[in-house]
Structures are given as C-alpha cells and as structure tokens.
Amino acid sequence: MSEEPVAPAPTATPEPAPELTRAQKRERRNAIPWLIGTVLMLLLLAGLALANSVNLRRAKEDGLVRGVESTAAACLSVVLSQNQGQATRIAREVATRGRFEDVSIVVNNHIWASSDAANLGTKLDGLSEQDVSPRLVPTPNGTYSVRAPIMAGENNVAGWLVVSAKLE
Fold it and tell me: pTM of this prediction?
C-alpha cells in the first residue's frame, strides 16, 4: 500500500465587501444624528422621571408634616382635660385612619397616651419648648418620625404629638 500525500485543504479567502453606493453611504450618515437624538431624548425622559419622583417624595413629606401639625392643634383640648383614656382612644383612631405605625401624645417628655400601650411612660428626649417647629426625622428602620408641638397659646407648649409613619 502506498500512501498518497494528503493535500492541504484549500483555504477559503474571504471575498472583499462590496463597495457601498453613494445612496447607502448617505443613509448611514443620516442615521447617526437620529440615533444620537433618540438617545438624548431617552436620557432627558429618565432625568424628568427622576426629578418627578424627588418632587413627589418632598410633597409627601410636606403633607405628612402639615397633617401632623393640624392634628396636634386638635389634640389641645384632650391634653388640657388630662383625660388619658380619651387621649389613648384618639391616638389609636388617628393611627388607624392615618395608617400610621404609631401615634403618641407626649406630656412633660413622657409618653402620656399612645396607640401602642407598650410605649406608655417612656421618656422622649429632644423635645424642646424653645424649638416649637414641627420636625420630620428619618429613623434607621425606614420610617419617619414627625414631632409637632401641641400649643396652648403663642409660647406655651402643652405637649407634643409624635407620629411614626412610612412614606410609600
């Protein structure tokens, strides 16, 4: 048996790409500005959506503070009457209807009435009679604590309304 030499397989040489016509070149040049314009429009829409979500969050926070502030003003009569049972019922009702996690009425830096009975008597620090502006304080667990003074007159703080809520 004689062995015949094996011839190497012919290598396929790629054919050169056909030349583009002037019309095809013009079409490609015209597509680039449209592509850039589309990408810029999408970036603009994404930026607007982000700005809108920031504004919506700020509006929710402002609405929460205003609502707690007006509720605090309505709590003055129950604080002055010193009716703890009625104050507790009001705190529970406000928490239920407002879908808040906790509502507490604080007198002399201690929780006097609360929607959560476990909080009664707990001392709260950071409530100053000199700083009577309502405050929105973020907490580590993702909720917000809103503290609004219950004012009896222009400069007399009768207590505080403290509301813990999640903003959705």
Answer: 0.69
